[in-house]
Design a protein that fits this description.
This protein is of the alpha/beta class. The chain has 10 helices and 11 strands.
Length: 328
Amino acid sequence: MMLLDPLWLLLLIPVIILFIFLAGSKSSKNTMNYTNFRFARSTADVKYSLPRLFDFLALAAAIAALARPVSLEKTITPPVEGKDIMIALDVSGSMEALDFQPKNRMEAAKSVIETFVKGRNSDRLGLVFFARDSFLQVPLTTDYDIFIELLSKVTTGVIEDGTAVGNGLGLALSRLDSSKAKSKIIILLTDGDNNAGNVTPEAVAELAKQHGVKVYSVLIGTDKEVPFPAGKDIFGRDTYQRVQVKTNPALLRKVSEISGGKFYQSISTEELKKAFADIDSLEKSPVSARKLRIYNEYAGDFIIAAIVLILLARLSAMLFKLYPEVER
């Protein structure tokens, strides 16, 4: 237990001195005025001092209440205003290319995104995925465990193949329409060119600029031939073929430049990690410099004790007269 206002306890010093003085003067007065030894013995009985003792304890309890006795329950860091971040992830078939570790481009992207999510403290995150069509997987949330769980379920082959970059970007932007955050960004991850959809990435980038949303584009892989799963042979073994995936880094760079973001190209998982680390440093979340302490207050208990002691003082004064009659 600790005291938030300990200076109030200084009042106990004059109270104690006064109590001792009054007790001493009363004792001497009794000795001088009465010579009946039986009465002297009776006034020495502790019960005749109870009212004064209870009054003193009541006053001490009241002063202790003013000193605000507390115990520390916990220390919390208040939340600070973070950013709203939408991640648009390409799930087209080309994301199964095997030039990224630990398995392919898709698994590498999900792993890096998960690490990025775990580094958040106050940001709201959302996730859309796209191929020929685009879908919302996670609305903006600060529940990072749910985000990671739903991210793990994203895979290729669930929608018709294609790469509608504009549509995926547009869906991510629409989820930021009602955002009140001071900082709003979209992280776009794709390994191909825009070859589907009904809206161009440049048009969405212009809208993003108007709404104060930055687009960070990350191109995964290159346009060189890369190993790609081709099924199984007659013995059930995995087979592979070399496939060339068309990319358009100029398009993604333009999208980022229009919106005020930045473009990255990653040809390995390590470079993909560096891209996200750079985005994290450019869009660093604020960290609260304050810590709040939550206390259990006991002033109320001392006030109740003071009231009870005052009642006991009055009751004892009624039961045991301070000046009992002298026996004749």
